[in-house]
């Protein structure tokens, strides 16, 4: 394409998508009328609606090809993936076999003619990239890749630099969806999802009351939930503009999942009756249609902003463990020979959170396998660090100093790779707590909570840190907040245990025993609880229960001594002295 000579032509930076139909001439020679009809139908039913959905401008169509302008490279790549899936779906529906596209995308300066046509190197490079793409594939320039690499849930393959026709400098090329099986039925997006980012769309909540004013309230809740979920670096969350495109439309969740490329969908409704408001929300697996979680919330209109905040916190707190459980089950069902690093991490998760010795060994083995596949996988590094930290805290370590050193090393490495991930920062905070670097631990946990104030585990670890710093009242507040955010979390018993220890610190020994008994009832296999429960009984004057508690401890930890417990715990010197006194009264040496 040549540039127009008009020196006053309008210029702007744009993302350009160039596409054409693979083997069009052959298809025309075989069935001219049928191919033309299919192409027209494809443009009308798939290409034009998807370009509109992703905020693109169809510049022109030329034979079997078309050119699209986007203001955002993110929208351009999303549209490209959506187009490939839509074209494949059209072929399956027609029974005639899929048409296939080649797509190239570039980001560059363009010249716009009065009639809307575009020219320039930005367009030429997109056209050259399209010719480099394999059938069903997408090729991006390095400029596009740099803009979308951390914003989209796709895996890209670096194809190196290519010298393309009429362009002076080599172009760095990245490919997506290359070599896809045109007969695949699972959908392109399921292949493109990042290994470590389950994806979710939050749809506009339906206003089923008679009051149209409630639309604003419902939209506000959805926007808050999207913003809160976006803080989870372990999720890919569809932006508001894309999910709100479905407002007022009757579309199946499975179709929405395919069109937005997401695995999970959150939907809901709002109903107002007088001064009362009821909000319902449910989380659905878009692939299967299975409901993973549902809840309703009631409030009054006078407290509308407080209610909005409460609903956002509760929904976000419930979504994370629900999706985590679904991802674990998904990985569990995969055949062993097909497991990748992400699958291995998902299989490890329930063992990580069980806080049991054999489970810790199982989790460690799975995480080591994941790290052999991907040594720089931040989540695997972080969980491996936490497993090693557990061995110290729960008296399972055969080499405490080595485990402390490795815990900190792995946690710091993970944080250097994902410095804005709240979960990974929380693990580093926990590791620094284990090594008794409380000031740095507080800094990491504060940072994690500023990034994600709805992280139940960050509040849990903050509660323990306040316990270790002799601040039991704040510790209890943080444990209670963790429980409110995620009451069915596998770590809930650990919050109850933390509240019990906070009461011990405050010398409320009756409450200390009650809360630790509650934790032990919820998790009977957590025998390590007896290390602090026994001295709580002793200080509460229940020596018989204290001795029985120590007996249970010794069954699981033959030969354990008070010095071993002191090495594992991180409380202040004064609190540790009271633990020692209570353990001695209970008969431990």
Describe the protein's architecture and organization.
Strands 1, 2, 3, 4, 5, 6, 7 and 8 form an eight-stranded mixed beta sheet that branches. Strands 9, 10, 11, 12, 13 and 14 form a six-stranded mixed beta sheet that branches. The model is unreliable at 1-6 and 178-196 (pLDDT under 50). The termini are far apart. By secondary structure, the chain is α/β, with parallel strands linked by helices. It has four domains: 10-192, Nucleotide cyclase, GGDEF domain (Alpha-Beta Plaits); 199-322, ABC-type transport auxiliary lipoprotein component (Rossmann fold, 3-Layer(aba) Sandwich); 334-453, Alpha Horseshoe (Serine Threonine Protein Phosphatase 5, Tetratricopeptide repeat), CATH 1.25.40.10; 492-589, Tetratricopeptide repeat domain (Serine Threonine Protein Phosphatase 5, Tetratricopeptide repeat, Alpha Horseshoe), CATH 1.25.40.10. It has 24 helices and 14 strands. It is elongated. A hairpin with a 5-residue loop joins strand 13 and strand 14 (291-300). TPR repeats lie at residues 422-455, 456-489. Pfam families: Guanylate_cyc (PF00211), TPR_16 (PF13432). Residues 15-130 form the Guanylate cyclase domain.
């Amino acid at each position: 394409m040549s540039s127009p000579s008009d020196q006053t032509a309008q210029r702007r930076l744009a993302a350009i998508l160039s596409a054409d139909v693979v083997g069009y001439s052959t298809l025309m020679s075989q069935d001219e009328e049928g191919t033309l009809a299919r192409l027209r139908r494809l443009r009308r039913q798939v290409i034009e609606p998807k370009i509109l959905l992703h905020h693109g401008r169809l510049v022109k169509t030329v034979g079997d090809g078309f050119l699209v302008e986007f203001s955002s490279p993110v929208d351009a790549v999303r549209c490209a993936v959506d187009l490939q899936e839509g074209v494949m779906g059209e072929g399956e529906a027609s029974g005639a076999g899929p048409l296939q596209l080649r797509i190239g995308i570039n980001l560059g300066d363009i010249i716009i003619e009065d009639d809307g046509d575009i020219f320039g190197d930005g367009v030429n490079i997109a056209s050259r990239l399209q010719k480099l793409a394999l059938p069903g594939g997408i090729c991006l320039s390095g400029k596009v890749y740099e803009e979308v690499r951390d914003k989209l849930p796709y895996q890209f393959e670096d194809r190196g630099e290519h010298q393309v026709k009429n362009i002076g400098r080599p172009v760095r090329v990245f490919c997506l969806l290359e070599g896809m099986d045109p007969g695949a039925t699972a959908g392109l997006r399921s292949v493109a999802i990042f290994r470590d980012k389950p994806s979710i769309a939050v749809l506009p909540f339906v206003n089923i009351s008679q009051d149209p004013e409630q639309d604003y309230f419902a939209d506000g809740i959805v926007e808050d939930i999207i913003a809160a979920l976006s803080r989870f670096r372990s999720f890919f969350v569809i932006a508001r503009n894309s999910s709100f495109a479905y407002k007022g439309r009757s579309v199946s969740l499975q179709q929405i999942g395919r069109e937005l490329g997401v695995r999970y969908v959150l939907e809901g409704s709002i109903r107002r009756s007088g001064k009362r408001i009821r909000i319902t929300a449910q989380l659905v697996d878009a692939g299967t249609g299975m409901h993973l979680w549902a809840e309703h919330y009631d409030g009054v209109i006078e407290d509308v902003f407080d209610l909005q905040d409460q609903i956002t916190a509760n929904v976000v707190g419930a979504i994370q463990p629900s999706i985590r459980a679904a991802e674990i089950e998904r990985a569990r069902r995969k055949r062993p020979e097909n497991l990748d690093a992400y699958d291995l991490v998902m299989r490890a998760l329930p063992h990580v959170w069980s806080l049991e010795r054999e489970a810790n060994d199982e989790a460690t083995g799975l995480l080591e396998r994941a790290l052999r596949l991907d040594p720089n996988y931040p989540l695997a590094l972080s969980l491996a660090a936490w497993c090693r930290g557990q061995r110290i805290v729960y008296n399972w370590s055969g080499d405490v100093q080595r485990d402390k050193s490795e815990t900190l090393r792995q946690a710091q490495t993970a944080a250097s790779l994902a410095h804005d991930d709240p979960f990974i920062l929380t693990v580093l905070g926990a590791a620094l707590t284990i090594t008794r670097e409380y000031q740095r631990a507080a800094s990491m946990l504060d940072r994690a909570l500023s990034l994600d104030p709805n992280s139940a585990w960050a509040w849990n670890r903050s509660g323990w840190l306040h316990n270790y710093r002799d601040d039991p009242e704040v510790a209890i507040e943080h444990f209670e907040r963790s429980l409110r955010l995620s009451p069915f979390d596998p770590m809930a018993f650990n919050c109850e245990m933390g509240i019990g220890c906070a009461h011990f610190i405050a010398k409320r020994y009756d409450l200390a025993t009650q809360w630790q008994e509650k934790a032990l009832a919820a998790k009977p296999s957590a025998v390590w609880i007896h290390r602090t429960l026994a001295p709580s009984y002793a200080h509460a004057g229940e020596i018989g229960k204290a001795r029985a508690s120590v007996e249970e401890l010794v069954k699981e930890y033959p030969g354990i001594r008070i010095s071993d417990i002191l090495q594992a715990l991180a409380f202040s010197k004064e609190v540790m002295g009271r633990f020692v006194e209570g353990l001695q009264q209970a008969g431990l040496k």
